[in-house]
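Q: Structure tokens for this one, please.
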Amino acid sequence: MALATVCGMIDAEDVRRIALSFPETVEKEAWSMPTFRVAGKMYVTIPDDQTSFAVRCPRHERTELIAAEPEKFWVPPHEAGSAWVRVRLAALEGPDELRDILVDSWRQAAPDHLADQHPDLRPGVVAG
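A: Here is the predicted structure, written as tokens:
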């Protein structure tokens, strides 16, 4: 078990565990890092340093997130043109916030019929 988990901090293994709990999610290595996909569409990546993760995020929402919480959300210059945002693990308030962020990204990537079959997978809905 990672030291971060023992200390109660969220770490990359928590991202992996929660992402893999979502329907039809598969883990695939790409660009030398773990990526998680649903129906072939990537919805989360864990960069090499494992201090952050990246998720799908519409650009207009991304701008608002970064302005509201720059200590938590950011975009590296090489990803500025994409519809993704990075999230600093150390800045998360807890596992519920992590789950909500991952659920939102999963719903953006999942086919409508799959997302519709899982109304429990919505931000703010407590995992059962």
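A few notes: DSSP finds five helices and six strands in the chain. Residues 1-6 have pLDDT under 50 and may be disordered.
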